Amino acid sequence: MGADRPQGDRVPVLTAAALQRAEAEVLAARLRVVAEPTRLMLLSMIHAAPGGEASVGDLAAPIGLTQPTVSYHLRALTEAGLVARDRRGTWVFYSLVPGALQQVRDLLG
Amino acid sequence: MGADRPQGDRVPVLTAAALQRAEAEVLAARLRVVAEPTRLMLLSMIHAAPGGEASVGDLAAPIGLTQPTVSYHLRALTEAGLVARDRRGTWVFYSLVPGALQQVRDLLG
User: Fold this and answer.
1) Which helix (H) or strand (E) holds B33?
2) B10-107 has which CATH code?
3) Distance from CA of A83 to the nearest CA of B (A)
4) Cβ of residue B17 closer than 8 Å to a chain A Cβ
5) Listed residue (A73, A66, A75) closest to A38, CA to CA
6) A83-90: long-range contacts, CB 8 A cutoff, minimum separation 24
7) Where exactly are the structural domains of chain A?
8) A93 — contact with chain B (CB < 8 Å)?
9) Do A21 and B41 touch (CB under 8 A)?
10) In whole angstroms, what is the distance from residue A82 CA to residue A74 CA?
11) What is A19-107's CATH number, 1.10.10.10, 1.10.3720.10, 1.20.1250.20, 2.60.120.200?
């Protein structure tokens, strides 16, 4: 633990620009959903896919998981608002929700 | 779960650009450390601080926590490689480690 320093007028600067607790709680909940290796790999694969979208079948083979397992993780990511689901005819495509974790992204440098 | 689609030559594209499991595991471990509201607020406050650095004393008052509690969270963030600790004389300053979560940032759009 470090020594302290007089705070003076720096405090308002810190509070004004920083995340408020309610926002931080929403972001933390999203991050808990993402903080899992398979889900990170799926997000990365969707991000890298042509057109930024992929089906369960596109994802299952390269990641070496069954389609039900991939669907389970995609459902969690969709419910957390991180991934969007678009049914077109008989195919369902998944894409990243733009800006879903923008605040986290911004503060991660 | 969505209908499948022929994968054809899209598979190599997906695998080449995507996170590999070993990288995903490291990132997931870092995200688990970050997926906590107080820690997100501290990261945000450090990011917004003048010069991109802050002491425990700078952070404790605006976030409404004791200095030992703030120190505990900063230690976890430091051990995870997300925050750097710099002692100068009797003061200790914390700053974000640039690029510590670059891969996550990149894939969060």
Assistant:
1) helix B21-34
2) 1.10.10.10
3) 10
4) yes
5) A73
6) A83/A43, A83/A46, A85/B2, A86/A53, A87/B2, A90/B3
7) 19-107
8) yes
9) yes
10) 9
11) 1.10.10.10
Where does residue A12 fall: left (phi above 0), alpha (psi -120 to 50 degrees), or beta otherwise? alpha
Q: Is B86 on the interface with A (CB under 8 A)?
A: no
pLDDT digits (tens, 9 = 90+) for A50-102: 999 999 999 999 999 999 999 999 999 999 989 999 999 999 999 999 877 77
Phi and psi dihedrals of A92, rounded to 5? -120, 125
From A22, A61, A85, select the one nearest B41 (Cα to Cα).
A22
Nearest Cα of chain B lies from the Cα of A76 at a distance, in angstroms, of 12
ipTM tops 0.85 = no
As given in the structure block, the two tokens for residue B15 are 């695998």
Give B58-107 pLDDT, tens digit per residue: 999 999 999 999 999 999 999 998 899 999 999 999 999 987 777 666 66
Q: How far is A64 from chain B (nearest CA, A)?
A: 11
How many angstroms separate the CA of residue A94 from the nearest CA in chain B?
Answer: 9
Q: Is A49 on the interface with B (CB under 8 A)?
A: yes
Is B28's Cβ below 8 Å from some Cβ in A? yes
Contact indicator for B94, B53 with CB cutoff of 8 Å: yes
Searching chain A, which residue's CA lies closest to the CA of residue B31?
A35
A62 contact partners, CB below 8 Å, separation of at least 6: A45, B11, B14, B15, B18
Q: Do B105 and A100 touch (CB under 8 A)?
A: no
